[in-house]
Write a structure and sequence with these properties.
Layout lengths: L1 E4 L11 H14 L5 H20 L5 H8 L3 E2 L9 E2 L10 E8 L2 E4 L4 E2 L2
Antiparallel strand pairs: 1-4, 2-3, 4-5, 4-6
Helix pairs in contact: 2-3
Length: 116
Amino acid sequence: MYATMTVPHPYLDEASKPIAFWANKYKTKFGDDPTVFSVYGYMIVDTFIRGAQKTGANLTTDNFIKAMDTLTIPPDMFGSPEGKYTPTQHLSSNRSRLSQIQDGKWKIISDYFKLD
């Protein structure tokens, strides 16, 4: 089975030190191991926080939109590619990579492809 994805499933037995640290904090807080959906949730909240910080003390809807329209998100510990927002680009990144189930786990089998 194949699928496209942006971030890998955070398997704890294969995690880097930063991901293992995050995953252990996640499990302590929520009582379950994190999944790829936990990673996506983390990324969404991180993006909001970066946008709010860039907006500054005068956080209004209009100011937040202006800040988000110039926001760049660097690659993160999960291996996500850089994301950029503009007035016409709200997807952050148009990159994805191919994964395959091998030995019962999702394995990344390609670099990122840019989708046009």
